[in-house]
Each structure stands twice: as structure tokens, then as C-alpha cells.
Amino acid sequence: MKTLFVFLILILSIRHVVAFEIKGQLQPGGLIHAQLEPGSSATLNGTRLSVSEDGLLVFGFGRDASVDQVLEIKEPDGSIKRQKLTLQKRNYKVQKIYGLPKNKVIPPIAQRERIASERRLISTTRNKKTNRRDFLGGFSWPVKGRISGVFGSQRILNGVPRSPHYGLDIAAPEGTPVLAASSGVISLAHENMFFTGKTILIDHGFGVSTIYVHLSEISVEVGQSVERGQLVGQVGMTGRATGPHLHWGLSWGQVRLDPQLVVPPMIN
Ligand SMILES: [Zn+2]
User: Fold this and answer.
1) How far apart, in whole angstroms, are the C-alpha atoms of residue 62 and residue 251?
2) pLDDT tens across 213-255, in order?
3) What's the CA-to-centroid distance between 223 and ligand 1, angstroms?
4) Which residue in 125, 229, 143 sits closest to 186, CA to CA?
5) Mean pLDDT value of segment 154-172
6) Cβ neighbourhood burial of 5 (10 Å; 0-12, 13-18, 19+)
7) Above 60 in pLDDT, residue 12?
8) Which is more confident, 238 or 155?
9) Does pLDDT of 28 surpass 60?
10) Ligand 1 centroid – CA 28 distance (Å)
11) Are 259 and 135 in contact (CB under 8 A)?
12) Is the pLDDT confidence value at 18 over 80?
């Protein structure tokens, strides 16, 4: 009976043949790509998405993305293909952290300008769109260890609710090698940011980037190409951290994605 049902669904869905296949995770935090006919254009919920000349479409769903999404593709011959995407619902954890130094939870006024300029720097770096396609080669764990913080969790620091946690925290001893999660080019290497300490960003193309935070050492320079699995730094606790760990983030432009969705289950 169940098999028959699945078969029926399959037949029904074949009737609406789509000329493109969507790859990625249909859930908040998911990174999506699709190969379209060269010369196609695309919108997501009416908002224009950029498509490369040869038809590669890349986008991501943010933490609070609505469950119902509509992707519309206009092909070069003018035909329009509409596809409803239903995202899997996600619930996020609430994480309480106590004992952080007061000046790191509520930044001192004297540091506000510095913090704002560091935010701008990270933000403009994430906005850069290059035609690299490194992310298509996949991602691997930059460090292996206990997951001490997940994507999307609401943090309560010293009892004060803060903005959600957009990265993945992997606890590991100070000095543990940090490896590039995917090939790319180093787009930022900063020695001392207020919140994130020694910080690296890698551009994987089409607005997809990864960030590596709280490092004790940086072993790369801006503009340097790196291969997936190449050493880029070492685990530390610089910036705002209570212990040595890697805060690892994945973004599409300014949209923060869940890095855990792009890697296989961790095997130590
Ligand atoms: Zn973190």
C-alpha cells in the first residue's frame, strides 16, 4: 500500500517536469545551488537572485526563513518555471552562558567605534561576489571535537538575551590545526578583533564564505589560495571566548547559514 502511494506521488510529480534540479538542504540555514539553462534569470519570493552567465544559481535560507518559498525561473526562451519549496521546520536551542567578563558582554563605550568598524569589515568582505566555484567541491570539518554551540541558538549571556548564535562551536585544545573547510581564497585575516580575536574569512565563490574565529595563530595571508583541508590557523580563545574552541561560520552574502548542514557526520 505504502509503495503504491509513493509510486502514485512519483507519477504525479513527473507531470510537472522541472528542467533544473535543486541541490542543497531545504531548511533554514541551507545552502542551495542549481544549474539552469545559460541565460536564465531567477527570483525567490519575488526577489531577484543573481545567476551566472552559464546558469549557476546559488542562494541560501537564513535562520528565520519562512517555510513556504517560491522559486521562479525564467528561461532564455521566455518560459517560466515556478517551483514551490517547502522548507523543513527547525527549532533552535536556548543557550545560557554565565561568567563572561562584563566588558565583553556589554562592550565599553570606548570600544563601540572599533566594534562597528570591525563589523563593517566582515560584512563588506562577505558581500564580495567572485566567480570561484570552490564550494561545489564540498566541505569538510575544519576541526574535529565536541560540538559546544550550534547554529541558530538563542544565547543568554550573563542573563541578558543576545542575538542568535550563527556559527558552530567546536571545542578543541589550543593549538589544534584549523583546516580550510573548502577550497578558496583568503579574503580576510585579522589579528585582533574585539569579539572574534584572530579571524579568517575564506571566499569560496558566488558569495559563499566561511569564517574561522578565536584563533591562536593565523597561518595564511589575504589573497592566498587555499585547498580544502589546508592548514589555515590554530584553535585558540582570542576575542570573546570562555575556552579554546573554533567558532566556524558559513554565509551566503550576509545570510548566515548552518555549516553543520554542508558537512558529513563527524567521525573522529
Ligand atoms: Zn560561536
Assistant:
1) 9
2) 999 999 999 999 999 999 999 999 999 888 999 999 999 999 9
3) 25
4) 125
5) 89
6) exposed
7) no
8) 238
9) yes
10) 18
11) no
12) no
Q: Is the pTM of this model over 0.70?
A: yes
What values do phi and psi take at 38, rounded to 5? -55, 135
Q: Which of 168, 166, 206, 200 lies closest to 186 in space, CA to CA? A: 200
101 pLDDT above the threshold of 50: yes
Calculate how far, in angstroms, residue 168's C-alpha sits from the geometric centre of ligand 1: 6
Tell me the CA–centroid distance for residue 165 and ligand 1, in Å. Answer: 6
Separation of 149 CA from ligand 1 center, angstroms? 6
Q: How far is the CA of 100 from the centre of ligand 1 (A)?
A: 14
Residue 16: predicted pLDDT: 47
Q: What pLDDT is recorded for position 15? A: 42
- Gap from CA of 196 to ligand 1 centroid (Å): 9
Structural domains in the chain, CATH included, are 2-86 (2.60.40), 94-261 (2.70.70.10)
DSSP string, 232-265: EEE-B--SS-SSSEEEEEEEETTEEE-GGGTSPP
Closest residue by Cα to residue 71 from 54, 59, 89: 59
Rounded to 5 degrees, what angle do the CA atoms 70, 57, 76 make? 85
* C-alpha distances in Å from residue 172, one per residue of 164, 207, 214, 247: 22, 29, 12, 11
Average pLDDT, the chain: 91
Displacement of CA 240 from its chain's centroid (Å): 20
The answer on pLDDT for 96 being more than 90 is no
User: How far is the centre of ligand 1, averaged over its atoms, from the C-alpha of 2 (Å)?
Assistant: 43
Q: At 198, which helix (H) or strand (E)?
A: strand 197-205
Query: How many angstroms does the Cα of residue 163 sit away from the middle of ligand 1?
Result: 12
